[in-house]
Amino acid sequence: MATTQQASTKQDILQILLKRGQATAQELAEGLEISPQAIRRHLKDLEAEELILHQSVVSGMGRPQHIYKLSKKGRDRLPNNYDQFAVSFLNTLVDTLGYEQAGSLLRKHWERKAQEYRDRLGDVSLRDRVIKLVELRREEGYMTEYFLLDENNVQSNHSSQFMLTEHNCAISHVASSFPSVCGHELEMFAATLEDCQIERTHWIVNGEHRCGYLIKAQDD
């Protein structure tokens, strides 16, 4: 029972680091509501397994503080919906049809996906569509969140600026080999929310810990 609980806590630590990008032992302890001593034991084990790494940061006159992040091995340990089959399939597609035509097929796939999203989002406010889009992406294996940027409209359904954030990439292996799929994903969001401007602000493929998209109503 204790071993199962420890494994669960370690998984929770990995999930928090995936979502936040980095955290101190104290922040992790507070987030999981367990003692800093217990957190440090788990962190030591996770570092020994090469699932996390740390850097020391000096602040003021105090002792250096350890900031913990996921390693690539730790990121790969977390649940995802991608595998090597997709990469192998795309390689075969490129070898058979050529890169340009394979890219055209990928674009058609994202266009169909955008149409599917539009049909499921319906004709509602932008805020409601963003909320529904987040739900759909979560169903597909993405750790997706949204943040309201125009704070004056927190209680309003007429909010016009959002940040959509995805803390993992369900097509990470594909994106590493075929970065163009990320461009198609941006096009897909733009086609899904046709009355908005969509701008990528963060990109996992570039080494950042999340993908981020700024969503703005066209009349802003």
UniProtKB/TrEMBL annotation:
Q: Which CDD domains match?
A: HTH_ARSR (cd00090)
Against InterPro entries, the record matches this protein to: ArsR-like_HTH (IPR011991), SUF_FeS_clus_asmb_SufR_cyano (IPR014075), WH-like_DNA-bd_sf (IPR036388), WH_DNA-bd_sf (IPR036390)
Q: Which residues are listed as membrane-spanning? A: none
Q: Which PANTHER family match?
A: SLL0088 PROTEIN (PTHR38600:SF2), TRANSCRIPTIONAL REGULATORY PROTEIN (PTHR38600)
**Database matches in NCBIfam families:** SufR_cyano (TIGR02702)
Indicate what this protein is called per its UniProt record: Transcriptional regulator
